[in-house]
Amino acid sequence: MPVITEIADLKRIYKRRVPKMFYDYCESGSWTEQTFRENTSDFDKIYLRQRVALDMANRNTATKMIGQDVSMPVALAPVGLTGMQHYDGEIMAARAAEKFGVPFCLSTMSICSIEDVASHTSKPFWMQVYTLKDDDFMQRLFDRAKEAKCSAAVITVDLQLMGQRHKDIKNGLSAPPKLTPASVANMMTKVQWGLGMLSTKRRFFGNIVGHAKGVTDPSSLSTWTAEAFDQSLDWDRIREFRKMWDGPLIIKGIMDVRDAREALNVGADAIVVSNHGGRQLDGALSSIRALEPIVDAVGDKIEVHIDSGIRSGQDVLKATALGAKGCWIGRAYVYGLGAMGQKGVTQALEVIHKELSASMGLCGHRDITKLDRDILMVPKGFSGDWA
Questions:
Q1: What total number of domains does the chain contain?
Q2: How many CA atoms lie within 13 A of 326 on its CB side?
Q3: CB-CB contact of 292 with 299 (8 Å)
Q4: Quick one: CA torsion of 176, 181, 183, 187, rounded to 10 degrees?
Q5: Which of 2, 133, 163, 186 has a C-alpha 20 to 30 A away from that of 238?
Q6: In a domain, 2, yes or no
Q7: Of residues 218, 126, 144, 148, the one with CA closest to residue 176
Q8: Exposure on the CB side of residue 385, measured as CA atoms within 13 A
Q9: Of 79, 303, 282, nearest to 162 (Cα)?
Q10: Within-domain flag for 385
Q11: Which residue range forms the structural domain that includes residue 184?
């Protein structure tokens, strides 16, 4: 059994065990992948201020996200196709999150359906939705989430059209995937993954097939997907979605102060500073660079979270010290899931929690809710001094 001490350990095992098509889907960005790379590398530009001879005993990482108790300010972000990284992947990730005491957010483009995840967990999870044209489908999706007792809805607003991801096109990754001789040959080498997939009936998009108009089987899914996303989306349309859901609402995909203010005006309870993991607009700022100006502009009126680039407890510590009330991880938990299933997701959370707690103590703090920017050394102009 390998010794896991960092997220990179899980990534190495994940790369060996999961087909290239799905590894590349997770581990890539759009176009040149500049934003994908800088999402992680920009965290390294922020330094932590070490303090000594201060009481570091009895550290506490527990806090709240949108009023819900969490064991640390971390949530599992919505990731499409999670059930192709490991059989029943969404169910396993949701169970690991539940046991660890952090939120799990299910993607609309999940393999396991809302009902599947609800029937295999005992605590509420969050449901992510896209901004689609079909009002009937959207209303029923919100209604299904309510029936499943989801405790928040997350509207992703940065996918009106798709950024080009070269690896996905070359691998035939689509909805549903287009299998090529090369991808089939690669899948045949991933025996453990293949046996797992053969053991489950959940292999297609459970929230869409049989629920969206005209999508009765996987073959009809690609046409629906190509036409479903609303390129004409505006904030009035988002207000319509707000009327469809009367529970806590999070808007994900905010990278500009002006958009943060608009999200506040439509009645969101939280926003997620996110560039979709570097998978949409290449050449955009990293999320960590975009965070502080947004917190300064709206952080006393709405809860500000962040995702994209978080791979460690130190990243969580830095983002929290810059004002984020929650940090969403996607790739970091997918590495664990693909490597070891539910146990791997748990290990990813354990690694992040251990790093967060120890680093917080070494910065002279015992309570995550009392962190501030004083623990950081941030380069001048880090968040922008643009001409």
A1: 1
A2: 30
A3: no
A4: 110
A5: 163
A6: no
A7: 218
A8: 4
A9: 282
A10: no
A11: 7-377
Distance CA 262, CA 243 (A): 16
Q: Return per-residue pLDDT of the chain as tens, 387 residues.
A: 789 999 999 999 999 999 999 999 999 999 999 999 999 999 999 999 999 999 999 999 999 999 999 999 999 999 999 999 999 999 999 999 999 999 999 999 999 999 999 999 999 999 999 999 999 999 999 999 999 999 999 999 999 999 999 999 999 887 767 888 899 999 999 999 999 999 999 999 999 999 998 898 877 887 788 789 999 999 999 999 999 999 999 999 999 999 999 999 999 999 999 999 999 999 999 999 999 999 999 999 999 999 999 999 999 999 999 999 999 999 999 999 999 999 999 999 999 999 999 999 999 999 999 999 999 999 999 998 887
Tokens of 309: 């680039």
The span from the CA of 148 to the CA of 142, in Å, is 10
Q: In this structure, what CATH number is given to the domain that contains residue 290?
A: 3.20.20.70
Residue 253, domain member (yes or no): yes
Distance CA 47, CA 31 (A): 30
The residues with which 367 forms a beta bridge, in sequence order, are 60
Q: Which residues does the annotation mark as catalytic?
A: 276
Torsion (CA) 228, 232, 234, 239 in degrees, nearest 10: -40
Its pTM surpasses 0.90: yes
Strand 74-76 and strand 105-106: the pairing is unpaired
d(CA 216, CA 8): 40
